[in-house]
Every structure is written in C-alpha cells, then in structure tokens.
Amino acid sequence: MEDKKNRRGGARAGAGHPKGDSRMISFRAPGALADQLAEMPNRTEFIRQAVSDAMTRPRALMLPYYDFSVVAGFPVPLDNDERAQDIDIISMLCPHPEASYLIRVSGNSMIDAGVQNGDIVIVDKSRRNPGPHEIAMCELNGEYTLKHFVLEEGQGWLVPANPDYPKIHISTDDDFSIWGTVTYIIHKARD
Q: Does 4 qualify as catalytic in the annotation?
C-alpha cells in the first residue's frame, strides 16, 4: 500500500494562504453597487481605501437646531414646532477635519476677539492666508502665538486684541509662518 503522504506533489509556489496578518473578508452589496465594484480594475485597493477613510473620518454628531433667535431678555419657550433641522456639529465647527487641529490658549492677548485664557480654538491649517480681522495661528522665531496678522505699508505686524499688549513687527530677520486660521473658539460659560 502506497503512503498517501508521498502521493502529494509537495509545496507549490503561490499555493496556500498568503503570508502576513491579512484575512479574507466578504460582504453583500446591492446589485448596482456590486456591478460597479466588479467593473473596477483595482477594486481591492479601492475598498481598502474607502474603509480606511471611513474609519478615520470623524463621525457626525447631530444636535437639534431651533430656527429662531433667542433674546437675552424675556424668556422664549422652546417648542418642537420651531425645530427646523438637525445640524452636524462636527461638520459645522470643522469643515476640513483633515486639515484642522485643536489647541488650548494660554494668555489674554486676544480677549477682545473673544479668546480667553484656557479656551480651546479650532485651527484650519488649509487657511494660511487670514484676513486682518481673522485670528491667525502663527510661529514667530520658534514660539507660537494667536494674533491678527496685518500688512501695513508692506510691513507685517502681529496685532493683539487687547490694548495691554503691544503690536509685534515682523522683520525680514524673523523666522515667521502662519500655521492656520482660527475657525471657532470653544469655551465654557464662565461663572
């Protein structure tokens, strides 16, 4: 009787499970989507990228939005009839999540612009050309600061929003760059 082990052809190149930690995953897709995927020349890479993007994208946080102004005078009752829609708070505060970051503020040089010590600001680094009334996240000679960036007679200035702080002239000898524009300021209601 012949040994069954000896009848096998031995190891074949490319046979068996691929090396590494990847595993086969399958899923059901609606007919039209399945047809589109079947026609793609590199569908594995497309699906891998789509899943990766979906996992790194911030999830929506929907909060109810009431479409009327609230006055800081006589009370106005909130009624569900005035509720216009739900708003995705993440998309509203951070329209470019891939280019945004949060940073905590230390100091009071921008207090008249609504930025207080301890606040967290959302900075959009895709917006590196702020207007003179926008708040810029700047690096000046290795230190970071929030200021208005203003050009006056061809000269760059960092202008605080607090009269107790001086304007800072940016000379050609300075190492200066703008790292983004503040889009929103987050702070708790103070006591």
A: no
Tens digits of residue pLDDT in 143-163:
999 999 999 998 999 999 999
* pLDDT tens digits along 45-97: 888 787 777 666 666 666 666 665 556 666 656 555 555 677 788 888 888 88
- The class that CATH gives domain 97-186 is mainly beta
Q: Where are the domains of the chain?
A: 62-93, 97-186
For this structure, is 126 an active site residue?
A: no
CA distance 103 to 181: 12
Is 5's pLDDT higher than 90? no
Q: Please tell me the distance from the alpha carbon of residue 166 to that of residue 158, in angstroms, as a whole number.
A: 9
| Amino acid of residue 96 | H
Set 109, 125, 126, 167: catalytic member: 109
Token pair, residue 81, equals 């009839």
Active-site choice (91, 147, 177, 188): 147
Q: Is 36 left (phi over 0), alpha (psi -120 to 50) or beta?
A: alpha
* Cα-Cα-Cα-Cα dihedral sign, residues 134, 135, 136, 140: positive
